[in-house]
Amino acid sequence: MSYHDLTVREVQDEIIKEFSLFDDWMDRYDHLIEEGKELPVMDEKFRKSEYLVEGCQSRVWLYPEFTDGKVYFKAESDALIVRGIIALLVKVLSGRTPDEIMDADLYFIEETGLRQNLSPTRSNGLLAMLKQMKLYAIAYKAKKES
After folding, report:
1. Packing angle between helix 80-93 and helix 8-20, nearest 10 degrees?
2. Of the residues 39, 56, 71, 130, which is catalytic?
3. Is the pTM of this model over 0.90?
4. Residue pair 80/115 in contact by the 8 Å Cβ criterion
């Protein structure tokens, strides 16, 4: 199934449903790691310092492409759980218009228990990744309107 065919809300509801299948947080972490494994391997040419996300303890690369009015993200991390987190963000926000990305209320972070169960540094990293995705959306919107 292509997540681009679903709304931001529908993708989040799907993620929440998947996480609800696991009672134990160790199982949820395993699921998060599996999500990261499904993220396509990022081409080496995008693993440059200009695509590193500031504010992440682990190294996270985020590369945006703007095609047909939508932003598509490629992402990679050298840490398993962080790779899972960025995979979820890509699943929800990639293939969206800049406005959809900027306006997205990412309630799945709360609903899945991610926010409460991530260490403070990973939680800060998640916010840094989200901020970077929104900044790319703002930049593409401004470019499109000029």
Report:
1. 140
2. 56
3. yes
4. no
User: For the chain, what are the domain ranges?
Assistant: 3-145
Cα pseudo-dihedral 6, 34, 44, 119, rounded to 10:
100
Q: Which residues contact 15 (CB under 8 A, 6 or more apart)?
A: 88, 91, 92, 108, 112
Rounded Cα distance between 114 and 103, Å, is: 20
Q: Under CATH, which number does the domain 3-145 receive?
A: 3.90.1010.10
63 as an active site residue: the answer is no
Cβ atoms < 10 Å from Cβ of 136: 20
pLDDT in tens, the chain (146 residues): 567 789 999 999 999 999 999 999 999 999 999 999 999 999 999 999 999 998 878 899 999 999 999 999 999 999 999 999 999 999 999 999 999 999 999 999 999 999 888 888 888 999 999 999 999 999 999 987 77
